[in-house]
Amino acid sequence: MNRRAVVFSLSFVAALALVLLLAPAALAAGNDVGRNLGSLLRRYAGEIYVGVVAVVGLVFLLNRRLSDLAVFFVVAVLVGWLVFSPGQVADTARAIGKQVLP
Question: Which of 13, 19, 89, 90 has the largest count of CB atoms under 10 Å?
Answer without folding.
Answer: 89
